Amino acid sequence: MAWLLDNVPGLRARAENGEIAFGTIDSWLIWNLTGGTDGGRHVTDVTNAGRTMLMNLETLQWDPTVLAAMNVPEAVLPEIRSSAEVYGTAVGQLSGVPVASALGDQQAAVFGQACYDVGSAKNTYGTGSFLLLNTGDRPVPSKHGLLTTMGYKIGDEAPVYCLEGSIALTGALVQWFRDQLGIIRTADEIEPLAASVEDNGGAYIVPAFSGLFAPYWRSDARGVVTGLTRYVTKAHLARAVLEATSWQTREVVDAMYQDSGVRITTLKVDGGMTRNGLLMQHQADVLDVPVIRPRVSETTCLGAAYAAGLATGVWNGLDELKSHWQKDAEWTPAMETSVRDREYRNWRKAVEKSLGWVEEGED
Prior knowledge:
By secondary structure, the protein is of the alpha/beta class. 37% of the residues lie in helices and 18% in strands.
């Protein structure tokens, strides 16, 4: 936005006169749905506004200091609204249908997973993973490599905040194991191969292929395989691939506790990797909390629908949504504490080996 205003002739003057509208994808959709150039509403919600980094997390308004630093006039920006309210009424083929919710991707998954209580958390397992923890009605500044973010805001109610941790490679590590190493032909083959051995045989894989994300944020890290002996087979490596996802998640959860003092009570999970029962059991073991998979796996879409339903009276409140949410499967911790602690120490040693591989000035 700042670049366009600086480089397109006449654009800044038009922006300052209120002739130009900038927003995120939800703003564009709402604007078009409600009429576009013929009376469309230029709005966004707190979760999407927060992702621009131009919104003050406490006031829930555009931050004048940041706007001044970026040299962006507030006149171009959408009005910030809650995540669940009627923004306007659709026109055209959807004429008369209320447009009633907007949520960012990960925040919608939080809402669709019914993570409405402090300490509830969800993790989405895709190419990478995104873990969000409900910290209640206060933004918790992070000192351990996490993101303080909006969770959601329902109408006039108090906002709910989250801590978020991003993990670069989880499902992508399975793809690497399949495509680059050729040890398996399909992603689904990794579970029975890993289950054919009782443990990882002392092997650990740290997938820092392009650095480490939360909680380290180390661009100098690179992937390592450690603990190899002649005993280690492809089955042990398959197990190490899956366990890398669990341990990376554990490190994010630990950072969340250090920042907030809030311990997660359960971890609700979604995404393609949740079909892997061995991984989900290991995740429950290393976190020492139940891991729960919902019956409706498309939790982002479900969260947007839940919020719209609240705004239009389809549901009466969060308690009703909690009862509507249904569990598909649950994994409970079964690992001995001494084993968990030993394995975590070994994982942390493996992570240390991944650091410092790229020196300053190298590509």
